[in-house]
Here is the input.
Amino acid sequence: MNRKKSVSKRFTLPRNKQSKSRAKSGKQGLIFLILRSFLAGVGVAGVCLCLLAEIFSVTALPLGWAGPAACGAAALGTFVSGMVLSAGLPRGKLLAGLGCGVFYCMCALMSSLLTMRLPVWEGSNISLLLCLLFGALAGGAAGAMRTGSTAGVR
Here is the structure.
């Protein structure tokens, strides 16, 4: 019995070192969650785009539908990304979906600026940004519903 106490005392960290290690692992967990969310969304969007390319090459669908189909694939990817991120967070699930949507919109705008083109605010470009934003918001809501979040319910 005396030996049990000495073993447990020997392997416990002081309070301040325990809190630092927990905080560090919490930050690492958040970084891995964001990375997993990003990779899941990009993977789903990539698979959808590959399937759409195969469908358009085999069938006689009009090529004018390729743009809206690619927009839908991107929206599905952001949906999965928002859902994975919001399901992994303990709170702020809808804000996580909004953050995913804003991140993907900023990526689309920055890619346009880096190719030396100013973003043109016309129908197809706005629809892509809105699909990215609302897809991630819907994914955040789905992730919140999947985990049984009771935010705002009294």
